[in-house]
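Quick one: Apoptotic peptidase activating factor 1 from Acanthochromis polyacanthus, structure tokens please.
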Amino acid sequence: MALEEGARSCLLRFRHRLEQDIKPSYLMDHMISDGVMTVDEEEKIRTKPTRKDQSAALLELLLMKDNRAYISFYNSLVKESYDDLADLLREDLPSVLSVGGESGVQTVLSEGGVPQRPVVFVSRPELVNRVREKLYRLQKDPGWVTIFGMAGSGKSVLAAEAVRHHGLIEECFPGGIHWLAIGQLEKPDLLVKMQSLCFRLEQSLDPQTLSRPPNSLDEAKERLRFLMLRRYPRSLLILDDIWDSTVLKAFDIHCRILLTTRNRSLTDSVSGAKYEVGVQSGLDESKGLEILALYTKMKPHGLPEEARSIVRECKGSPLVVSLIGALLKDKPNRWCYYLRQLQQKQFKRIRKSSSYDYDALDQAMAASIEVLPDEHRELYKDLTVLEKDIKIPAKVLSVLWDLEPEEVEDILQEFVDKSLLFVDSHHKPYLYYLHDLQLDFLVEER
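--- reply ---
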């Protein structure tokens, strides 16, 4: 494939400046290593009488080559510390996918540590397209896209699926996609995560020139800022499962970030453009049955009659449906037994599926509640007064908690932001309600 027009015109525009400043012999070594230049081509250039003549010949050759050669030339400028020259070429950097097609997508995602699809995967096209639409807004400028929702709603799978798209990577993130699993972290653990990301990014550029690991959060932040701006321009960093705004601030480095979280308000603490996608609605019945069918290797219409009841009891949670599906895969004669367990809220007996990070639904729920301040945690547990499918205004809880209505609204907003409560904002005053799974969990814990 020929060189993209934007890259070609960029080379022509800055040709004189490049000819004046570069030392071709250093750059050609890298380009031969990348397989975009032959030894014969290098030899022809070396025979030119002056360094400037050699530079002109190298640029002439580059104009006849493809996108891969341009990217290799750009990377060789970075490696040889021609940062000012690399900056000139950065905006028109072609996509690494231009020659790779769909296999190129898989390569980019694998190199960036993006998880593969779970063994049992059910597509949710409407949500995936909403996330992609937000990611396209990061094409020109840095910013944040937040996927938020309650425990087990499938946020991580959704994030990975959204970037599994040739056009999106080619147009918006030619610098690649880089995934970092976060979770609940103390500062020393956060530093280790950032060190490992720096190592991964630097190693893929040139394993011979690895720097020592950054030894503080500030140093790690600056190292990542440099790497993302200079060496991985127009790339996307995915931060999976963020709990704490202090963690997010460590990545406030003016780059493009997609994050998954249960706490919708986390990005209030950082700068830049912000977009969000809520994963508040669960799976519909047909998707739930599809998951059970895939696990048990049956056709949806061939599932036993208990299947529909199991999906209903799972309240649309991809996590719980998958937990049950994984169990039925090993014990296909236990449909009635697991339905009874769900009806009796015996979550502790439902063991984890290897596709998920949490041992069972109750642990996922408990982790969400644990991050609340002590006094709010007790108030949250009072929400067992709510009944299923009943929505109430803040005034009711104001009476129960003996607090001013405005204070109650602020507390409820905190619960909503952390995906622990839902709000119906179509009514005035707002009405609040729990997902059935959250209510079941609170009743069981009481």
